[in-house]
Amino acid sequence: MRVLVTGATGFIGRSLCAHLSKSGHTLVALSRDPARARRQIPALADAFAWNPTDGSPPIEALSNIEAIVHLAGESVAGRWNSAKRTAIRESRVLGTRHLVDGLTQLHARPKVLISASAIGYYGDRDEELLTEEASPGGDFLAQVCQEWESEAARAEGLGVRVVRLRIGIVLGPDGGALQAMLPIFRVGLGGPLGSGQQWWSWIHRDDVVGAILHALENHKINGPINVTAPQPVRQREFARILGSVLKRPAFLPAPAFALRTVLGEFSQELLSSKRVIPQRLQATDYRFRFSDLDSALAEILQR
Question: Which domains does the chain carry?
Answer without folding.
Answer: 2-169+202-229+276-289 (3.40.50.720)
